[in-house]
Design a protein that fits this description.
Mean pLDDT: 87
Protein name: ascorbate ferrireductase (transmembrane)
Number of strands: 0
Number of domains: 2
Strand content: under 5%
Number of helices: 8
Structural class: mainly alpha
Organism: Phlebotomus kandelakii
Cofactor: heme b
Radius of gyration: 24 Å
Low-confidence stretches: 17-21
Distance between the termini: 60 Å
CATH class of the largest domain: Mainly Alpha
EC number: 7.2.1.3
Shape: globular
Keywords: Electron transport, Heme, Iron, Membrane, Metal-binding, Transmembrane, Transmembrane helix, Transport
Length: 252
């Protein structure tokens, strides 16, 4: 009887130690996953810079009145800089707006932001095409227009890829889910780079140089490049990690 009691006592003691270690491990992981104050400040700064850039472009667009052309830079900047950027950042652990949410919630928010951003981009593209047609101007002559056209085409492709990725398990007979996700991620990264280039070239347009202050394009370029690097670091590292994992498991 005493041996049995001793065994129960020792087992209970071992179980308590195991539970304590598990709790300690969980607490340690939670502390490690908590963003440092530096990451929090950087995240706030990036959001603030992008908001200021978008607000300034919208202000310029309507500063001389509301015409059909005004909606092109305003809506395009709003779609790419605000909504598409935030959609990408939803999967970042350092993003204050979504870091405490589960993956399913982030995917849903990603879809909503991309849909709203896509609507803004579509309207912005429609207005510039209508403006050109009404005024009898030629299309796609400048570098900004050419890169913008490629960006719009790729935007449609990435959007279609996002829909495919969402239902990739049901479509696995045509394309493996891991391949679909990698294609969507890589094309999304390329799209964002093209969007930044297009916006940068837009700051050298007659419209921007005529109505903005002299160094605005340099300030805007700095904001776009700095924020672009910050925003794409996480998707690129995640994409490389997924590729390596899929390659090791032979899922490609």
């Amino acid at each position: 009887q005493s041996d049995r009691d001793r065994y129960k006592t020792e087992s209970s003691h071992v179980t308590d130690i195991s539970h304590k270690r598990t709790k300690m491990d969980i607490n340690r992981e939670e502390q490690e996953n908590q963003p440092s104050w530096v990451k929090i400040v950087i995240n706030i700064v990036i959001h603030s810079l992008l908001f200021l850039f978008t607000a300034y472009v919208i202000y310029l667009s309507f500063s001389k009145g509301v015409i059909l052309f005004s909606w092109h830079p305003a809506l395009s900047t709003l779609g790419y800089v605000m909504f598409m950027t935030e959609a990408i950042l939803t999967f970042s652990e350092n993003n204050l707006l979504s870091r405490n949410r589960n993956f399913k919630w982030r995917v849903k928010l990603h879809w909503i932001l991309q849909a709203v951003g896509g609507a803004c981009i579509a309207l912005g593209t429609t207005t510039i095409l209508a403006h050109k047609i009404i005024n009898g101007k030629t299309h796609f002559k400048t570098n900004h227009a050419i890169v913008g056209l490629v960006t719009i085409i790729l935007t449609v492709f990435v959007a279609a890829g996002g829909i495919w990725t969402k239902y990739s398990n049901d479509l696995r007979q045509y394309l493996r889910p891991v391949r679909a996700k990698l294609i969507h991620a890589i094309s999304g990264i390329i799209l964002y780079i093209l969007a930044v280039i297009s916006l940068f070239l837009g700051m050298y347009s007659n419209f921007f140089e005529r109505y903005s202050f002299s160094s605005a394009k340099w300030v805007g370029g700095f904001i776009l490049i700095l924020s672009g690097i910050y925003i794409l670091v996480n998707p690129m590292t995640t994409c490389v990690a997924r590729f390596k994992t899929a390659l090791m498991r032979g899922n490609l």
